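The instructor's notes for this session suggest beginning with a concrete chain rather than abstract definitions. Hand out the sequence below and ask the class to guess, before any prediction is shown, which regions might be ordered.
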Amino acid sequence: MCYTSSNAIQWYIRESFVFELVNKVLRSKDIDKLITLRLLIRDIYYQLRKEQKHLTDINATVYRGQVMSLKELKNLRDNIGNLISMNSFLSTSKARDVAQMFAESSTHPNDNSRTFAEISHLGSYGDEEEILFMLGSVFKLQDMDYDEDDKLWIVKLVLCGENDNELKDVLISMKNDIIERPSLTSVGLVLKKMGDIDRAAKCFQQHMDS
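After discussion, reveal the predicted structure:
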């Protein structure tokens, strides 16, 4: 399958090396490597926005199973009521039996900052009812409970968007600087805002040399 901007999600979920590479780079926060992936991330974002228009159940409960350490669980418990941002694409399912831990997301169809879509028809496992959330999605950590029957922790998250006042400026800036204009200059501006002057200068220099 030849890569085009319209099949970025298929490449991300079907080609294991792409999936592993993207998530490894995102979790490592390696800015230099993120720069090389910025166009792929942009293409996934726009394809998610396109697929999102076909969602019939905009207010949905989705689930994700994940093994976590005791330290990670304690960190979650200590931050109930706070906001958490996903540093990678978040894959979830509408089917609870596919996952062990779930995230409950209440959304509003007119809030375009909340980018997610059902992508089951784009992958090889349509029965998983997969919902993919854009990297950088911000959730409010609402509650945590231990399920004695299933012997697992249930973490409840609520998806946030631009209409949440405390996040509005951050999310708008993120979308404008990285997604809408995925140039080396825009990445450099974001790095400058973060105080990473050396890497910001490197982005500006690469832009001048290109």
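Then share the key points. Confidence is low (pLDDT under 50) at residues 100-112. The beta strands are 60-63, 83-85, 90-93, 102-105, 116-118, 130-133, 138-147, 152-159.
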